[in-house]
Amino acid sequence: MKESEHSHPEKGAHSAVEGNLMNAVEIKNVSKYYQEGEFFVKAIDGIDLSISRGEFAVLAGPSGSGKSTLLNLIGGLDRPDKGEIFLDGLATREKSDDELTFLRLHKIGFVFQAYNLVPVLTAFENVQFILQIQGVPEKHHREKILALFAELGISGLENRFPPQLSGGQQQRVAVARAIVGNPAIVLADEPTANLDSESALSLLGLMKQLNKEKGVTFLFSSHDSRVVETASRVIKLRDGKIEPCGLPLPQQKAIA
9-242: which CATH topology? Predict the structure, then answer.
């Protein structure tokens, strides 16, 4: 019996390369609508955007501008009503749910405002979980995870549970979880919102270091001025559209 593409989503996920492989993400004429009573609201309105590999970019704008909606569309957590999104060169709009799950697992790292760590797993186990579901042999787990913990300044916390960690420490574990599987891009939705200034600046410095030294591509959604000042590119959204900017910033704030 011939194996179906549905039963092996990875086959479908690699069946067609249609986007520019120089880009981690390409967005072409994407729109997303929501119904509110008798009216349709354009949360995202005909956006074209490319995120190159190795960028450290932020989607900025007021509440309701479409930042989180666009991040969810890129991450395959929602589907556009119009247009196409290419992730690591692969068109995503017509992918099945299984194929999108596969792409999220292997191509995207997520960092959330609320950390979203599993409370009954240790810090080490929270990160290891990604490698386990990716099918990475267990003999490679410990060395890789401990190296990441060292880079992120959380060595010695491997056996602690999330409630035993500070907010800044939990978010560093979340970053380790996001990058341990070598994704094409890390999507970070308001990652500093629950952190004090010192923890936020420290976290941003570490993420910037990962970007420079390892080439990790980051796309943030944030209205935090600290994130905006750190980004190498700011993409301003308003009313679901990109404002005429999004160029590299002439100066960046230095972070220790």
Answer: Rossmann fold (3.40.50)
